[in-house]
Amino acid sequence: SQQGEEDPQALSIQEGENATMNCSYKTSINNLQWYRQNSGRGLVHLILIRSNEREKHSGRLRVTLDTSKKSSSLLITASRAADTASYFCATDLATGGFKTIFGAGTRLFVKA
Amino acid sequence: DTAVSQTPKYLVTQMGNDKSIKCEQNLGHDTMYWYKQDSKKFLKIMFSYNNKELIINETVPNRFSPKSPDKAHLNLHINSLELGDSAVYFCASSHFDRDSYGYTFGSGTRLTVV
């Protein structure tokens, strides 16, 4: 399996519900980032959380990081139809040099 | 608008042809990247340039040649295109120290080789 695996692969919820996506990784990281990708578009950076941080908020987004479990979660509260997209986590590895690994994404569908 | 812009958005070409994709960023970033996204949505780094110098070159066929005339531009030239090259190619940029801001991506170039 790959560094930065999202779970679930796909999620379908009703508008107004909360959506939770998880990301697991294998090796030590400097930071973990979450991105959104709308169909046919590029990835948009949502939140970056550093390895010494445990939780960050941005509007309706809440990201947690548990380095002991090598996992992160992205919570979208009060979801809207416009939140329909794929969500990717990306881990910046703590090894020397450049290495950022993207997961395969969670496809979120929010039904109006 | 401040952005990463890449052209063309769509590219359909025959096997064996040579094609180029251009990328420009006006964000003042010093590092630029090419990523390939396959049909299963996996995003893989291909190349990275910092201040016009190649710093990352993953196991990409040498038919792919990046060129960075200055730190605001990173173009991708592909020779002798093959069916397996069909994918969406994303250009991205960042500050070299990515511990604060993450990446900014272009909107992608969908390459179809027929």
Q: Kindly, what is the distance between the CA atoms of the first and last residues of chain A, rounded to a whole number of angstroms?
A: 34 Å
Q: How many individual domains of chain A?
A: 1
CATH fold field value of chain B: Immunoglobulin-like
Low-confidence stretches of chain A: none
In sequence order, what are the helices and strands of chain B, one letter per element?
Answer: EEEEEEEEEEE
Q: Summarize the helix and strand pattern of chain A as letters.
A: EEEEEEEEEEE
Dominant shape of chain B: globular
The tally of beta strands of chain A, per DSSP, is 11
Fraction in beta strands of chain B: over 45%
Structural class of chain B: mainly beta
Give start-end ranges of low-pLDDT stretches of chain B: none
CATH architecture of chain B: Sandwich
Helix count of chain B?
A: 0
The proportion of residues in beta strands of chain A is over 45%
Overall geometry of chain A: globular
Mean pLDDT score of chain B, rounded? 91
Derived from helix and strand composition plus strand pairing, the structural class of chain A reads mainly beta
How would you name the CATH homologous superfamily of chain B?
Immunoglobulins
Number of strands of chain B: 11
Percentage of residues in helical conformation of chain B: under 10%
